[in-house]
Amino acid sequence: MDNLFILLILPIISALILAFMKSSTISKWTALGLSLLQFLLTIPFLCQFVPDAALQFEQSLPWIMSLGIHFHIGIDGISLPLVLLTNGLIPLIVLSTFSKSLKGNFYALVAFMQAGLLLVFTALDAFTFYVGWEIALIPIYFICALWGEGDRIKVNLKFFVYTFLGSIFMLVAIIYLYHQTPNNDFEWTSFTGLTLSDPTQRWIFWAFFLAFAIKIPLFPFHTWQPDTYTNAPAAGTMLLAGIMLKMGVYGLIRWLIPIAPLGVAAYGQLALVLCVIGIIYASVIAFKQQDAKRLIAYSSIAHVGLISAGVFAWNQEGLQGAMMQMVNHGISVIGLFFVIDIIERKTQTRSLHDLGGLASKMPKLAVFFLIIIMGAVGLPLTNGFVGEFLLLKGIFDYGAWFAVFGGLTLILGAVYMLRLYQRTMLGEVAEQQANIVDVEGYELVVLTIISILIVYLGIFPNGLLSLSEASVFQILQEVKF
Amino acid sequence: MGAIITLSLLGILVLYLGLYKAKNALLPVTLIGLVVALGFEITAWDKGTTPIYHGMVVFDNLALSFSILCIVITGLILLLSKEYFRAISSNVAEYYTLMLFSLTGALLVNSYHNFAMLFVGIEVMSVALYILVGIRKSDFNSNEAALKYFLMGAFSTGFLLFGITLLYGATGTFDITGVKEYVISNPQTISPLFYGGILLVLVGLCFKIGAAPFHFWTPDVYDGAPILITSYMSTVVKVASFAGFLRLFSYVFVPLHDYWTPVLLVIVIITLFMGNISALMQTSFKRMLAYSSIAHAGYMLFAIVAIGVDSASGILTYAIAYSLASVIAFGGLILVKRAHGSDQFIAFNELGKTNPLLAVTITIAMLSLAGIPLTAGFIGKFMMFHVVMQDYKIVLLVLAAINAAIGVFYYLRVVVHMYFKSADEGAVKVSVPLNFKIVFIIATLVTLLIGLYPDCILSIL
C-alpha cells in the first residue's frame, strides 16, 4: 500500500466517478468517502516514512522518451507534510460543503485539483511538475467561476491569465535548463546539479520567481488574490488559501533556490524585502476591511509573506518554520474561512458593520472561533506560535531588521484578528440576528477536528518538525550562497 | 503516389455520381475513397526515400505523415458535411469533387521534389478553393471572400513563381536536390539572384500560410466562406503549406540559415502579436478563430526559424493538435449557429447547461488551442519552445510566452460564455447529430491521447 502512483490515480478515478452524479446527497457522501479513502491511503506513507533526507517511495515511469521525460515521483521530508496537508484537508473541505446542495461536478473538480496538487508536491521531474502545476489551475478556475459570487467572471479571468503568464515563463526556464543538462532530461537531480553562470542564474531566478510569487502571492504580485478569494465559494477559497498557495512556497524550496542559488544570492534580499513589505502592507489593509472574508484574504497575504521570508532566509530555523507554518496556515485559514462561511449562512451577511454579539447566540462557535483565531495570531500553546517563532528566529539570523519589521506581523495580526473577533462575536446583538441557532452536526465535526489539530500541533510540534528536519538540513548543506 | 491517383479518380467519380443524381452515395463513396488513399499512404511508410518520376515527387516519411494528417482531417470535415452542404447548395457533388481536388493538390505540396510540382500542387489546391469559398452564389460575404482570396492568391502565386524563376536563373534546375547541391558547392559565390529568389519564395509561402504582414486576406476570407470550407482552409491547406515550407527550408535553404532567419524572425514576431491582439478584439467566434489561426501560424513558424532535428516532429505535432482542435471548434460553431443563427460569442451562452457534453468538448478544444497540459496543444507548444530553445532565442520565447497568455484570454472567453453567462432569449437546445458525435469523439480522444502520451507522434519522424 505504499505505491505513490495509487495516491495520484485515485483522485482522478474519484473525479470520473463523481463527474456524472446528479444527486446532491449521493455525491456528497461519495466525495467524502473517496477523500477519506485517499486520506487512509496516505497513512501508510507516514508510518513507513524514514525521517532521513533520502527520497522515498520513488517511482519513475518512462513517459515521453523522445524528450527524455519520465513520470518521476517521490517523497522526502519536504514534500511529505504537504502531501499530508492536501489529503488531510480535502475531506474537511468536502465536509464543510455539506450544507449546500452541490452536484457531483463540483466534487469532481475538487478531486481533480487534488491530483494536480499531489503531482506538484511529489514530482521529481520538471515536466511532470509543470503539468501538475498547470492542471491544478483548471479545476480551481471552474470552481471559483461557476459557484462564486459577485464579479466572478472578470475576477477569475484575471486570476487565470495572471497565474498562467507566470507559469509560462517558468516553462521557458525549464526548457532552457533541459537543454543544459548533460543527458537531456528533466530530472530534478540533473537540474539542481547544473553549474550555470551567474547571469543565467539571474534570469532563471526571475522566470521561476514570477511563477511562484504570483501563486503565493507575494507583494506586488498579489493583486488577483483579494478579489478571487472574496468572490470564490467557501470551499474554493479554502482550496486556494489552504493548499494551492503552498505550491508556490514548495516551488521556492524545491526548485527555485536549488537551481539558481547565485540568482538567490543576487536577488534574495530583494525578495525578502518584498515579503516584509507584503506583511506590513497586507496587515494594514486587513485592519481596514469591513468584509470579514476579504479581511482574512489580506491576512493570508501577510502570513504567506512571513513564510516566504523564512524560506529566503535559507537557514534551518527559517526553513523548518516555513514547513511547519505551511501546515499550520493551511489548517487555520480553512478554519477561519469556514467560520465566516457559517456566519454568512446564518446571518446572510459578512460585513462587520452588521454583525455583533454572536457569542451569546452561538457560544460553541465562539469558543471554536477563539481557538482558531489564537492559532492564526500565534499565541503560545497553539500551532501558530511554534511556526512563527521559528520563522522569526530564522529571519533574525539572516538580518535583525528584517525580523523587526517581519515581527510586526505578530502585533498587527493580533490587532486585526481580535478586531474581527470582537466585531462578530462580542458587543450587542444585531436585531436581525435574534433567532439564529448554534453550530451543530457536521459543522461541529469540522470545527472540532481543526481545533484539536491547532492545539495538538501547538503542544507537540516535534512530530511534524521531525518529518522535515533531515531533508531541510541536507538541502541547506547542498545549496549555499 | 497511389493516394494521389486515387483521389484524382475519386474526384471525377464523385462528379459523375452527382450527374446521375446519386446524392446519397456521395458521402459514402468519398469516405471509402479517402480510406483507400489512406491505405496507400500507410503501406508506403518507410519505403520511399528516393524521389520518383524523374525526381518530381518524393514519398518520404515527412510527406507521408503530413499527407495522412491531411486525408484524416479532410475525412473528418466531410463527415461533418452530411447535412451541411445540402442546406446551402443544390449541387452537392461539386463540393465533394472540389474538396477532393484541393486535397490532391495538398498531397502534392506535401511530397514535391521539384519546384514545378510545388507550383502545380499549390495551384491545384488553391484554384479548387477559390470556387469553394464563393460557392454560396447569392451571398454577398461569400462572393467578397472569394474575390479577395482569388486576387490575393493569384498575387502571392506571382511572388512564388517569380522567386522560383530567380532560383532557376541562379542554379539552372528546378530539382530541389539540384538546388541544394548548388548551395553546398558554391558557398562563396552564390548569385544575388538566388538570394532574391529565397525572399520571394518566402513571401509567397507566407501569403499561403497567412503570416503577417501578408495576412490581411485571412479574416475576411475565413469569415465569408461557409464554415466547413473555413475549417478546411485553416487546417488542411495550412498544414500542407507548412509541409511545403518545411521541406524547402529544412532541406534546401538550411546552409543559408543566417541570411533568411532574421527576415523570418521579424515575420514571426509580427504574426504572433498581430494574430493574438486582433483575436482579442473580436466578438465573433468565427473571426476569433480566423485571427487565432494567424497566431498559430506564427507558432508553427518557430520550427522553421530555428530549424533543427526536432523541427519536423514539432511541426507535425503542432499541426495535428491545431487541426483537431479547429475541427471541433468549427463543428461546434456549425451546431450553435444552426440553433441560434449567430456566430457571435453570445450564441454560446448557457451551452454548458443545455448541452454539457458539447460544452466539455469545445472546452477541451479551447484548452488545446491555448496550450494547457494534458492536451495535444500543450505538447505542440512545448515542442515549438523546445525547438527554438536549441537556438537559444530566449527573447523570442519570452515574446511567445506573453502571446500564449494573451491566447488564453480569448480562448477562455468562449468557456466563460458557455458556462458563466446566461442566455437572454431562453435556452435553446443545441442537438448534436450522430455524424458530429463521431467526429467530436475521435478528435477529442486523439487530442487527449497525444496530450497524455505524445511519444506516439514524436517518435515517428
TrEMBL record, chain A:
Residue ranges annotated for the NADH:quinone oxidoreductase/Mrp antiporter transmembrane domain, each copy included: 124-408
Membrane topology: Multi-pass membrane protein
Alphabetized Pfam families for the sequence: Proton_antipo_M
Keywords: Membrane, Transmembrane, Transmembrane helix
Transmembrane segments: 6-22, 29-51, 71-94, 106-124, 130-147, 159-178, 203-221, 233-253, 259-283, 295-314, 326-344, 365-386, 398-418, 439-459
InterPro entries membership: NADH_Q_OxRdtase_chainM/4, NADH_UbQ_OxRdtase, ND/Mrp_TM
Subcellular location, record wording: Endomembrane system; Membrane
Family the entry assigns: Belongs to the complex I subunit 4 family.
Protein's UniProt name: NADH-quinone oxidoreductase subunit M
Organism whose genome encodes this protein: Sphingobacterium pedocola
From TrEMBL, chain B:
Entry keyword set: Cell membrane, Membrane, NAD, Quinone, Translocase, Transmembrane, Transmembrane helix, Transport
InterPro entries linked: NADH-Q_OxRdtase_suN/2, ND/Mrp_TM
Top-level EC class: translocase
A matching Pfam family: Proton_antipo_M
Transmembrane segments: 25-42, 62-80, 92-109, 115-135, 147-170, 190-211, 232-253, 259-281, 288-309, 315-336, 357-380, 392-413, 434-453
Residues annotated as domain NADH:quinone oxidoreductase/Mrp antiporter transmembrane: 114-406
Compartments where located: Cell membrane; Endomembrane system; Membrane
Topology in membrane: Multi-pass membrane protein
Main location: membrane
Enzyme Commission number, as recorded: 7.1.1.-
Domain of life per record: Bacteria
Keyword Cell inner membrane carried by entry: no
Catalytic activity: a quinone + NADH + 5 H(+)(in) = a quinol + NAD(+) + 4 H(+)(out)
Keyword Cell membrane: yes
Description of how the protein assembles with itself and partners: NDH-1 is composed of 14 different subunits. Subunits NuoA, H, J, K, L, M, N constitute the membrane sector of the complex.
Function statement: NDH-1 shuttles electrons from NADH, via FMN and iron-sulfur (Fe-S) centers, to quinones in the respiratory chain. The immediate electron acceptor for the enzyme in this species is believed to be a menaquinone. Couples the redox reaction to proton translocation (for every two electrons transferred, four hydrogen ions are translocated across the cytoplasmic membrane), and thus conserves the redox energy in a proton gradient.
Protein name, UniProt field: NADH-quinone oxidoreductase subunit N
Species of origin: Sphingobacterium pedocola
GN (gene name): nuoN
